[in-house]
Amino acid sequence: MAGNKKPRKQYRPKPVLNPIVVVGENIRPVASHTSYLMDIRLGNSSAMAALLQGHATKRDMDRIIAMSNIVYALMETKFGNEYDDLAKQARIAIISIAHRATTVGRFVPTGPEIKALNDLMELHDAQMDAITVKDMDRAIDFARRKERNATRLPVGYLKGTES
Questions:
Q1: Per residue in 113-162, pLDDT tens?
Q2: CB–CB of 70/99 below 8 Å?
Q3: pLDDT of 31-83, one tens digit each?
Q4: Could you give the CA distance from residue 117 to residue 93 in angstroms, rounded to a whole number?
Q5: In a 3-state reduction of DSSP, which class is residue 132?
Q6: Is residue 130 a contact partner of residue 78, using CB atoms and an 8 Å limit?
Q7: Average pLDDT, stretch 78-97?
Q8: pLDDT attached to residue 1
Q9: Do 109 and 101 touch, CB atoms closer than 8 A?
Q10: Measured at the alpha carbon of residue 157, what is the angle toward residues 152 and 162, in degrees to the nearest 5?
């Protein structure tokens, strides 16, 4: 009977978090994490540059879509609600670029779509300067929850722009 017992696992204690550090980190602005913020801005800028030069890949478009999702998630948590129309125009531009890519075979924006996406990038950068780490975590959780529940924020979310 001794051969049927499961072998015992070695005890591994849970890591202890210092609550002061956790609280302090959550109230710090995202702008104080310069390397993280620089990586985000460089990635978004390179995706936009690839789109403008006409050699954007699906990964570049995914990056732009993720930026748009974070803008909408931050707007849900009351950061930049006054720019709702600007974000809607950018979302419509992303959708039309994606639809055009199915026929043309590559991602090619028009002039007004470029302006809308540049405005979206400006809004995203301004939101990143204004929010804290905790706000960013909430926005990411919100976007992931929407994606997991298959309630993404594309056309149906745009009030009055059913297509």
A1: 999 999 999 999 999 988 888 888 888 888 888 878 766 554 444 444 33
A2: no
A3: 777 888 899 999 999 999 999 998 999 999 999 999 999 999 999 888 888 88
A4: 7
A5: strand
A6: no
A7: 90
A8: 52
A9: no
A10: 120
pLDDT at 21: 66
Cβ neighbours of 140 (radius 10 Å): 15
Residue 137: C-alpha distances to residues 12, 74, 152 (Å): 28, 10, 18
CB-based contact 119:92 (threshold 8 Å): no
Axis crossing angle, helix 84-104 with helix 111-130, rounded to the nearest 10: 130
Dihedral sign of CA atoms 73, 79, 85, 90 in order: negative
What is the phi/psi pair of residue 29, to 5°? -70, 150
* Separate counts of helices (H) and strands (E) for the chain: 6, 0
- Residue spans of the domains in the chain: they are 34-151
At 16-35, the pLDDT tens digits run 777 776 677 777 787 777 88
- CB of 50 closer than 8 Å to CB of 57: yes
Instruction: Report CA-CA distances (Å) from 45 to 6, 7, 31, 50, 55.
Output: 54, 53, 17, 9, 14
Sign, Cα dihedral of 92, 96, 99, 101: negative
